[in-house]
Amino acid sequence: MAKFLSKKMIMIALAVIITILLFYYILPVSIPLITAIVTALLLDPVVKLLERKFKIKRKLAVLIVFIIFMLSIGILSYFVITKVVGEGVKLVEDMPVYINQLSDIWLTYEKQLTNAAKDLPIEIVAEVSQEVQDFLNSFKNSLKEYLNIEKISAFLAYIPNYLVSFLVFLIALFMFMLDLPRIKQTIFNHLTEKTAEKVNFMTSRLSYVIFGFFKAQFLVSIIIFVVSLIGLLFIAPEVAVVMSIIIWLIDFIPLIGSIVVLAPWAMYHLLSGNLTLGTELAILAAVLLIIRRTVEPKVMGSHIGLSPLATLIAMYLGVQLLGVLGFILGPLILIVFTSAKEAGIIKLNFKI
């Protein structure tokens, strides 16, 4: 026990605690820089491939990869702005119409309920009617509160901040891509040969794992897109392509996914009396949710080298402790720990 609690182990534990505290306070304001260095690590294999294949200098290879990356973001942004945002604006504009339709639907149901409940005590019928009416009024007021001009103006006021963060991300990404070899060399200069070998093994493992993580996320989202498209081609063919793309994009957001789109859509049709369409959309939402929750841990586990159970636990604890960002950081922290253990940097060969 005394050997385990040696001075070296205490110093390592203190360093880990200080690092965690720094990350806790600095991480929220460093997301553009962290995203930039992670993206640079992901793009670095492509840069090295261009250097080897075409025998060009790193600066030119970095410039080519960076331009391709920028073009990809530009094309995706154009599509999102013209299609997804356009549909969202149309939905917001039509929201009062939908609310009025729901009110009319409830009035129809209320008449039917009154006719069907003639034999019931009038107090029960009145209480049920009042509860539902209060719910509809509360829902209507909530929509008005979140969709009013003040909320939209406040959101638009943050756009300059988002643009600044995005600009910082692009500049930092280009600089990290250029200086990545020098940064690695600077770090390795402060390490012994044995430690450098271990760190090199761990960084190689991390590069593979990070790429595998995003590859797994992409594969799961492709499955969601294909199932959504096939389902909507039978359910609502006139909007199948657009809605499948919207579901695909939203499904990238951790803990939200396709249920945010399909659940309100299904509920609206169920309330409006279109039971067949509403039920089909609800079934599709349930199928997509089951696919996401069952396939995701298995696919991620196979691509990042963790068991599905360990991946699921890491994602859950990450979300609970760090919020949405923990969905990504949870498995990555576990991979850092596992890689350090495999490299011999962390040793846990003690017995109690």
What's the number of extended β-strand segments?
0
Q: How large is the share of residues in beta strands?
A: under 5%
Rg over C-alpha atoms, rounded to the nearest angstrom: 26 Å
Form type: elongated
Helix content: over 70%
Low-confidence stretches: none
Note the total helix count. 12
Distance between the termini: 8 Å
Structural class: mainly alpha
How many domains make up the coordinates?
A: 1
Assembly state: single chain
Q: Return the string of H and E elements.
A: HHHHHHHHHHHH
The largest β sheet comes out as: none
* Overall mean pLDDT: 75
InterPro entries: AI-2E-like (IPR002549), YtvI-like (IPR014227)
Protein name: Sporulation integral membrane protein YtvI
Main location: membrane
Keywords: Membrane, Transmembrane, Transmembrane helix
Compile the SSE list and pairings.
Blueprint lengths: L6 H20 L4 H24 L3 H59 L5 H25 L2 H9 L1 H31 L3 H43 L4 H11 L8 H13 L3 H30 L3 H15 L3 H18 L9
